[in-house]
User: Which sequence fits this backbone?
């Protein structure tokens, strides 16, 4: 028996990366898992891995930006399993480029997935989590929801918004004495496909951006999943993943707004 045994956990963005590792780790600890993604191929592979391990799994193609679709999905999962204990709003994308050079559509797409996808998942599943009497919302932000960096304006906006939304939700659940815990996760560099799948403004080299990210990504998705679930089990309001995340958190705490000048200087020297 583990903390997760016989619980029902929903994981979005489960077709690869942290989402896949979370689903596998949750199933390995005795949870039933409902997985979803827009990437049908990746999702099928996650389902195959889960079934091979004997997991109780429900798999659905899902676009988290489609609010009505997410609401219907939540009802379907609740009906299928009978109850829902946990939701991991993990689906996300990235985009690189100066704000001046971005089209509005680039900003909107990142916000739609990385922020509104979190809102849609949280709102759709929250009533079922409350009804379970033992609920938990886990929303994935980023270290870029702790500090901002040049060329990541869209991603920063979405991840700061996710942090603010999640922290407000946690306080509401506490003050209203709802049986739902809330955790905001801030990963540092994770070895996933997020950079390789990211978009960028014209003039930036996609392969170079991906290679540069790969150089600084130190934490595996499997390690990230274990850290997240440890935080969930302890009911932590915030989970940092990776030494880089802890360093960035300290930078933000002790430098205040002065970090902006430091990061801007470093970015200029590095040609970012």
Assistant:
């Amino acid at each position: 028996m583990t903390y997760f045994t016989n619980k029902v956990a929903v994981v979005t963005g489960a077709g690869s990366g942290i989402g896949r590792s979370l689903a596998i780790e949750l199933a390995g600890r005795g949870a039933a898992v409902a997985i979803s993604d827009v990437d049908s191929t990746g999702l099928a592979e996650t389902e195959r891995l889960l079934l091979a391990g004997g997991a109780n799994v429900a798999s659905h193609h899902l676009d988290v930006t489609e609010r009505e679709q997410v609401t219907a999905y939540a009802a379907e999962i609740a009906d299928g399993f009978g109850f829902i204990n946990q939701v991991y709003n993990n689906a996300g994308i990235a985009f690189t480029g100066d704000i001046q050079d971005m089209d509005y559509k680039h900003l909107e797409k990142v916000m739609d997935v990385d922020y509104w996808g979190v809102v849609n998942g949280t709102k759709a599943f929250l009533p079922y989590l409350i009804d379970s009497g033992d609920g938990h919302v886990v929303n994935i932000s980023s270290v870029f929801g702790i500090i901002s960096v040049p060329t990541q304006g869209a991603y920063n906006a979405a991840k700061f918004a996710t942090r603010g939304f999640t922290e407000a939700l946690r306080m509401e659940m506490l003050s209203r004495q709802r049986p739902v815990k809330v955790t905001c996760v801030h990963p540092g560099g994770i070895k996933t496909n997020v950079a390789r799948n990211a978009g960028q403004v014209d003039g930036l080299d996609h392969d170079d951006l991906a290679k540069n990210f790969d150089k600084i990504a130190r934490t595996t998705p499997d390690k990230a999943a274990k850290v997240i679930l440890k935080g969930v089990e302890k009911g932590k309001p915030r989970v940092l993943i990776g030494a880089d995340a802890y360093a960035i958190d300290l930078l933000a705490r002790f430098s205040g707004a002065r970090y902006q000048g430091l990061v801007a200087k470093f970015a200029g020297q590095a040609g970012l």
Q: What stands out?
A: The CA atoms of residues 74 and 125 lie 6 Å apart. The chain has a mean pLDDT of 92. Residues 8-270 form a domain with the Rossmann fold fold (CATH 3.40.50.720).
